[in-house]
Amino acid sequence: MILRENTEGLYASRGAGIVVGGQVATDTLVVTRPGVLRICRQAFELARRRRGALRDGVRRVTLVDKANVLKSYAFFRALFDEVAADYPDIQAEHAYVDAMTMYLVQRPAHYDVIVAENMFGDIISDLAAATVGGLGMAPSGDIGDHHALFQPSHGTAPDIAGKGIANPLATILSAGLMLDWLGQRDGNEDATRAAARIEAAVDAVTRAGRVLTPDLGGPGTTGGVGDGVIAALELNPDPA
To answer: 113: which of 23, 89, 140, 215 is 20 to 30 A away, CA to CA?
Structure first.
């Protein structure tokens, strides 16, 4: 699970950069204490609710930065460590972003929750999606203090429009993320259980592998995968 701080970082300079005389261009990377503390706390709270990394079951939060080069990332790391001290039950670690692009390919099962600045989170989230089959498997949520928007990470895929072979799992998993967030926000156990059911159903369908869409190497259709998820939900009414 990758948490990307998406109100600050380098992308905060979008539309505000400066080009001087066609010779020099600058953009500003913005890191604030409130923004970093908020996203880091969310990362550790999320890790407490999860089962830990796939490889060893350790509840782990990994900060991805470039603290060895830029003061803004060193500041981000210092604040991350400040938050980590409040969560002694969660393992905290750091990784430079260039090394992380290798680690995510070599040992993806080591990671559980990853937190990063805006641009770095943008880059490594696509790489992480590739390790599980592509963007058709990647749900996402833009989550604020009180409101949130959930959607698949992928775009419109015009090259396969109308063919009925688009992978619906990212959309379905995004609905699961929404229910989990609503359950946590409102204390609604029904919503939390529904989110767990969706994740378990998608897991069952992908493990079986019989109705996967072509992007995952299967012969299935969008509707067929959706029907498979529905069938899995009916077989397992409550994974808890």
So the answer is: 215
